[in-house]
Each structure stands twice: as structure tokens, then as C-alpha cells.
Design goal:
The protein has 141 residues and is an all-alpha fold. Helix content is 82%, strand content 0%.
Length: 141
């Protein structure tokens, strides 16, 4: 395991947790779709600032059509996920909503095997099974 990806993975998890908490508080004052719009604008502004500050900007014409296609598909999936997430947060408890949302981990593993040809060993499948059971226990009980 590379220490760099582990650091960023834990940082991502911490920010995802804060997303649920802040989102649950924020969505109480506006419709779920409006909350998603506000969140998206904030992310756009911050990301533009990061790309500009780090010199990562490149001309859109230099990006391959395959990359464009999959980044657009990823963006559409992200948007649909965010819309659903804020809707579910507006309807349910954050402590129950977030674990079900994190079943995406299970789906990523399955899709990675199916579509990317990634290999998971027995221990990985045990972990994925535990995540599934844990999320369902938190959601149901």
C-alpha cells in the first residue's frame, strides 16, 4: 500500500463524514435540489481556484475524446448521486443515510471486477460482505 493514497483515502472519508453532517444541517433550510445546487457551485469555485493555483489548467482541446466522455459520464453520475444524497438526507437520519450511501463501496468493488478486470482475494470479499451487512444493520435497526 502506498502511504500517499492511504492518507488521501482517510482524508476523503473524514470530509465525506463532514459532508453528511453539514449537509443534514444545511438541507433543513432549503429544498434538497437547491442544497445540491449550492454545494455544486461551492465545489466549482473551490476546484477552479485549486486548478489555477497549482497550474494544472490545460486547454480542453488537448484532452482526448475518451477522457471527455468518461469524465462527463462521471460528472453525470456524481450529480445524480448528490441529488439523491441530499434528498435522502432531507428525509432520513444522517447516521442511517450515510451507511446506506456507502454501499457504493460494495458496488465499486463489484463493478471494478466486472468492468475493469480488477482481482479481489477472499479477504477482500469478506470485507465487502461485512460492509454490506454493517450498512444494512445500521439502516434497518
Amino acid at each position: 500500500m502506498s502511504a500517499s493514497w492511504v492518507f488521501w483515502a482517510f482524508l476523503s472519508a473524514a470530509f465525506a463524514a463532514l459532508t453528511a453532517i453539514f449537509g443534514k444541517i444545511g438541507v433543513a433550510g432549503v429544498p434538497a435540489d437547491m442544497a445540491t445546487l449550492i454545494r455544486t457551485v461551492v465545489i466549482l469555485v473551490v476546484t477552479v481556484g485549486i486548478v489555477a493555483a497549482t497550474g494544472q489548467w490545460q486547454a480542453p482541446s488537448t484532452i482526448s475524446s475518451k477522457t471527455w466522455l468518461f469524465l462527463v459520464l462521471s460528472g453525470l453520475a456524481t450529480g445524480a448521486s448528490w441529488l439523491a444524497y441530499y434528498r435522502e438526507l432531507s428525509l432520513g437520519d444522517a447516521a442511517r443515510v450515510a451507511p446506506v450511501d456507502k454501499l457504493s463501496i460494495v458496488l465499486v468493488a463489484i463493478f471494478a471486477v466486472m468492468f475493469l478486470g480488477e482481482k479481489l482475494n477472499f479477504a477482500h470479499w469478506i470485507g465487502i460482505s461485512l460492509i454490506t451487512v454493517g450498512a444494512l444493520v445500521l439502516a434497518i435497526f
